[in-house]
Amino acid sequence: MSEKMKAAVLVEPGIIEIQEKDIPKPSPNEVLIKVKSVGLCGSDVHYYEHGRIGSFIVEKPIILGHESAGEVVEIGSNVKNLSVGQRVTVEPGVTCGVCEYCKSGKYNLCPEVEFLATPPYDGAFCEYIAIRSDFVYPIPDQMTFDEAAMAEPISVGIHAVRRGRLQPGETVVIMGMGPIGILTAAVAKAAGASKIIGVDLEESRLEVSKKMGVTHTVNLKQDNLLEKINLLTNGKGVDLALETAGNANALKSALSAVKRGGRVVIVGMPPEDVATLNISNIVGGEIDIYGVFRYSNTYQTAINMIENSELDLKNIMTHYYSLDEMEEAFEKAITDKTNAIKIMVRP
Ligand SMILES: [Zn+2]
Ligand SMILES: [Zn+2]
Fold first, then answer.
1. Ligand 2: distance of its center to the CA of 30 in Å?
2. Which of 144, 174, 264, 326 has the fewest CB neighbours in a 10 Å radius?
């Protein structure tokens, strides 16, 4: 008989069951990790509510959660880079390593990727996960597991800022002050942006964003975005706009907010696949548009940022739940957008 663990399983949209599952056995190249902290991500909430994101559909019960950190408790026979007892954070997408995307370093585009909590692959809202050792990164002693789990959403910010080719001194607007928007602001700050304009409808989120790198805020309930941007950029528009809200109107605003020759990075995924955009502005202004899909080669950078920067991630970690309280955690994320920014689950 194999040993059992507890897992929070999404059996159908809106219903989480705590089930007993076999503790996974690490294969020769894998390590077994005792999960200590997992961030609840917007994508988890989306699967919980709707059972799908775009073409990814939950067809059988699934364990969600992909922003995880924990402790190595067993290593496969081939594993040389890790040892039992190490505290680690986990990059959730295991890639093939041989396709042209993997070989060119853009492994986030690997068609063979097995990504935690993306159907059909289970995630980390459970007590143990087994994962290939080259996607597991040791963390410094003083870093908490909660902080280490944030290497995942910070990675999205790092990749977005890299894709947007942000240069020191440039001006930036970020649409959406959810965890990704706020952490992207923190990365933009670290990369030397001068003005970072955070945009949202929730005043509480805008307040938090100011502690994390945002220099100016726009509350769409009361401010006119383009007026405010013109005021802050001498009528020119920003160098770089990052859309993290996953909203087609926010994307249109992002396109209007950049200066001629500016760049727009699309990080958020709107519910609808198709949006109408003003092509003449894009062409006439030579605006570059970049898509962002997850990230590659960001984890060590993210760990270093958490370790060395002034970044206080406790500003965004607003609520903590155990595995048994998983349904409450999801309901909190759905019903309390004012107060809940990043919800942490500690199995
Ligand atoms: Zn995430
Ligand atoms: Zn590949």
1. 18
2. 144
Candidates 21, 6, 65; CA nearest to 330 is 65
Class for the domain spanning 156-291: alpha beta
H helices within the chain, ranges in order?
42-50, 100-103, 145-149, 151-163, 179-190, 203-210, 225-232, 248-257, 279-284, 299-308, 326-335
- Nearest ligand to the CA atom of 108: 2
Contact 24, 32 (CB under 8 A): yes
User: What is the spatial distance between Cα 57 and Cα 112, in angstroms, rounded to a whole number?
Assistant: 17
CA of 268 to the centre of ligand 1 (A): 11
Output the CA 169–ligand 1 centroid distance in Å.
Answer: 29
CA atoms within 13 Å, Cβ hemisphere of 324: 0
* Residue range 30-51, pLDDT digits in tens: 999 999 999 999 999 999 999 9
pLDDT tens string 206-221? 999 999 999 999 999 9
Dist. CA 214 → ligand 1 center (Å): 21
Q: Could you say which of 3.40.1350.10, 3.90.180.10, 3.30.540.10, 3.40.50.300 is the CATH number of the domain covering 4-149+316-346?
A: 3.90.180.10
Instruction: Please state the rounded mean pLDDT for residues 256-276.
Output: 94
* Residues near ion ligand 2 (Cβ under 5 Å): 95-96, 99, 102, 110
- Tell me the three state secondary structure of residue 60: coil
Ligand nearest to the CA of 115: 1
